[in-house]
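Query protein
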Amino acid sequence: MKRIAKMTTVWSSQRGLSLIELMVAMVIGLVLILGVTQILINNQKSYLFQQGQVGNQENSRFTLAVLSQELSKAGYRSKPTTALALGAGQGCTFPAGTSVIAVSATSLCIRYQAANKGDVNCQGGALASGDQNAILNPYAQSNPIVVEKIWFDSTSSSISCTTGTTTQQLVTGVAALSFDFGSGSADLKTVTSFSTNPTGAIGAVRYTVLMKSPGTASIRDSSTKASPALTEWNNRFGTSLSDSNQIYQIVQGTTMIRNQMQ
């Protein structure tokens, strides 16, 4: 009897977890795992959102810098008091004295006179060999005229530049682009109105760009709430762009065009 009692005592002290205890432990573990998982998901969304904002800001600054740089070339000539003659290029016809042609609300042509052999075009490349060979003296009045077309490519969501026979993307991550062309008095000294279809010589160009965050979609907190920037763009320009649940940002700039000095 003593032996049996002793064995019963040993077995009682080695008893494992009951089913209820095991279920309680599993529930507590699942709650902890769900909590940690939710924290990781929120952190990932926050990281992607911040990365999208940073990408938009960087692309926005670069876009404004590129457009300003190219438009500031328009109308340059070695002798400022001599107007540019009648010319054509990239499908645009330039009346005498003009340096910017409005092709559409998303496309324009500019022209300027090359200053020297070291000039680069809108694609960052050297001038065509024929243009370089035509430059005999730096800043000579006989230097060739360079024509560039800057336009929005909706297929690749980019702003592209065409010069000569080649086209190259300048900025990617662009959802939409709109040019407004400023015109005014006959002497080109003032700009009184902006239009996508100007009737007079263009003295200024205002560009509005809708940037779209790079990377994958679904990085905003809510997929059901439309982007305020995208909504404003559609209301302002009468478009119906769909929301891909990415981060949108509107940026705008204006560049005055070189005019004939009088």
